[in-house]
Amino acid sequence: MHVANPATTQNQFEDQPSISEVLRAPHLFVRESLAGMVTALALIPEVISFSFVSGVDPKVALVASIVLCLVMSVLGGRPAMVTAAAGSIALVIGPMVKLHGTGYILPTIILAGIIQIVFGLAGLARLMRFVPRSVMIGFVNALGILIFAAQVPHILNVAWIVYPLFALTIAIVLVMPRLTNAVPAPLIAIIVVTAIVILWHLTVPNVGGKGAMAPGLPGITAFTVALDLDTFRIIWPTALSVAFVGLLETLLTAKLVDDLTDTRSHKGRESWALGIANIAAGFYGGIGGCAMIAQTVVNVKIGNGRTRISTAVAAIVLLVLVTGLSDLMAQIPMVALAAVMMIAALKTINWHSVQPATLKRMPIPETLVMALTVVVTVATSNLAFGIAVGVLLAMVLFARRVAHVIRAERTPSPDGLSVRYSVHGPLFFGSSNDLVERFSYGEDPKRIAIDLTHSQIWDASSVAALDAIETKYREHGATVTFTGLDPRSSSFHERLTGQLGA
User: Fold this and answer.
1) Which H or E element spans position 483?
2) Could you tell me the sign of the dihedral formed by the alpha carbons of 324, 330, 336, 340, in that order?
3) In a designed cystine with 83, which of 72, 295, 407, 433 is the match (CB 3.0 to 4.6 A)?
4) Which residues lie closer than 8 Å to 212 by C-beta, 6 or more apart?
5) pTM (2 decimals)?
């Protein structure tokens, strides 16, 4: 196992300011701090909304988000990425809570955290390289749709005054960046709309209406169920889902931020740090989480946050709101937060990927994988299902394409006593069956040379196919010689040939 030390990891972020540089430059510190403030406000609607799905009190989810954001600001491998009590985790935990109660949440989160730590320390985060670009784009587009759809209820079946406030929020967010970038436009919009509601005593849905917002902090979460095999049988399926859904969303979001900022992140460090953060949030808060793509977009794309300071400030601001300013936070109109999140959702979607010109140029299989990832994710509201189906379809389509690139060129000798076949293309389970059909067994002479210089053997199916070719020629009284194998393929073939049965 290899875990990079902080100095090594820090070197991977060459193009972004270091924390010391930000602290020495007032304008950078102000930028990071303001980005953190607006991110903290952007966290509130989703964290509170999905707290009901997971079966916990809204304040529990907010406190867990503070812990997650703080821990990841210190330990995480992707600066400026926002981690909190995410909806994807709530959707996984919810069914277990309905069946068995909230007492099983803490052991579930702890077990999920341990799995994530092992995953990160074992270097398994490198497996993310096998997620195709089409699946990644589908993931981003689906999350944008889900986040937008989650805000729609806040502007339906409400008093008429909500709609002017909604329009004002949108206008400020879109117009203010043209006038000044000194303060993030969403922060200005939320402050202005909240001030209007308070000063004019308007009655509109607000944060306080979503759950109790009493000041103060909860204590350490205690175990309320026995830590025995019966508990383990209940929690392990959910814990696995929490661990891998959290890792999947976190690592894909980290890759997205890498692309947005043209910097690199340490995926292994991000994985084990997420496990530690979840365990801490489980004990002090009571629910787990992962990276949140919309709030990360708010921080990185709208607020221009680039360092750990932005996410640390987000956690601190959220802490202040929950403890000392809970009454003020309770008065923030939900329509203002919903409008900000809708714009973030629209900015999350990769619009270039769905433009007619792009779709026309893109290979149909790539478009199909992207579309299916979006459809499954939106239909199930489950990121894991969407990604799994997308990756599976991409694998099948890739294997199908590669299977048909294999070819065997037949060259008879001048005297007609032998034939040489030159095989081109990779040999694996998808292509090896085609290879068997490329030879003229009944017409060829008694000496056959099969040249594999331009091919490689990748699995046992390929060896079995070569054995089948040799057997068919033997039935016609011919001998076969395989030549040109590279050392790895030759060793693999020698180990398995004749040992695979009929």
Assistant:
1) strand 479-483
2) positive
3) 72
4) 57, 58, 59
5) 0.73
Q: What is the dihedral of CA 344, 349, 352, 354, to 10 degrees?
A: -140
Q: Please tell me the total number of residues recorded for the chain in this structure.
A: 502
Token pair 């990927």: residue: 353
CA separation, residue 399 to residues 391, 394, 395, 404, 483 (Å): 12, 9, 6, 9, 26
Give the CA-trace dihedral at 321, 323, 325, 326, to 10 degrees. 90
Task: Identify the residue whose tokens are 């997620």.
Answer: 131
Rg (CA), the chain: 28
In three-state secondary structure terms, 105 is helix
DSSP structural state of residue 165:
H
